[in-house]
Amino acid sequence: xxxxxxxxxxxxxxxxxxxxxxxxxxxxxxxxxxxxxxxxxxxxxxxxxxxxxxxxxxxxxxxxxxxxxxxxxxxxxxxxxxxxxxxxxxxxxxxxxxxxxxxxxxxxxxxxxxxxxxxxxxxxxxxxxxxxxxxxxxxxxxxxxxxxxxxxxxxxxxxxxxxxxxxxxxxxxxxxxxxxxxxxxxxxxxxxxxxxxxxxxxxxxxxxxxxxxxxxxxxxxxxxxxxxxxxxxxxxxxxxxxxxxxxxxxxxxxxxxxxxxxxxxxxxxxxxxxxxxxxxxxxxx
Length: 285
Known about the structure:
6-stranded mixed β-sheet; SH3 type barrels; Lysozyme-like; 4 helices; about 15% helix; alpha/beta; 15 strands; about 20% strand
C-alpha cells in the first residue's frame, strides 16, 4: 500500500508536454533517511521531488502523481542511457523512485520487494517494459552521481517483480493517483517549462532542420497528418495552453499571412500561428 503525501506546487509541474508520457522508471537513492528525503520534497524552496520514495522497511510514499512531472532527473551529464531523448528533459518521460539509504548500503529484502512490486505496477499501468533499458539507475542520466549506489543491480529488482500484480492506488488525498493519460485518452494539462532544464529552445537553422523546441498553444489547434496544410486529415485537436515538444518547422500553406508549420516526431503538423512562437526563425536561444 502506498500512502499519498504530495509536495508543494514549486517542486513539480502539472502534466507533461503534449506527446510525452512515462516511458521508463529511474531508480534513486536518498543518501540519507526516509524522513530526510521527505523533508526535501516537502520544502517549497528545494525545487526537488520524486514520484515515490520507499523506506528500508518497505514503506511506500507518493509525492507526485504519475501523470505529472517530478523534478528528479533533469540534469544530464555524460549519459549512458540508450533511450535518452536528445534535448528533451528526462523528467518529462520518466517516473522517479527514491529509496532510503546510502550509496554503499545493502538493500533489505523488504525494500527490494516493495520497490519491485511498485515498478511492476507502474510498468503495467503505462505499458513500460520491465528490462534494464526501461528501469534504469539515475547515474545513467547523470554520470556525476553515484545514485542509486554501488550495491544495487537492476536485475535484483526485476527478478522480484510479482508475476501477478494488483493495481495499487495511493491512499489518502491523491487527486488522481497513478491514472495514466493514455488510458483515459485525455490530453495532459499545460506544463510550464521555465523551471525545468535542460530544454533546447534554439530555433532550427531553417525549414526542415531538426532540433527540439517547446511551444505553447494560444487556442485550440488542429494536428494534421503528414502535411503542412488545411487539407490534411485532422488526427487530434490540441487544447489551448498545451505545452508541445516539436522537432522542426516547415513552410506550408499560408494561413492569415503565416506559412510556418511545426512538425512533431511522427511527422504531423500544426500551424505555428496558433502558438506563442508564430515565427520559429526568431525563437530566443
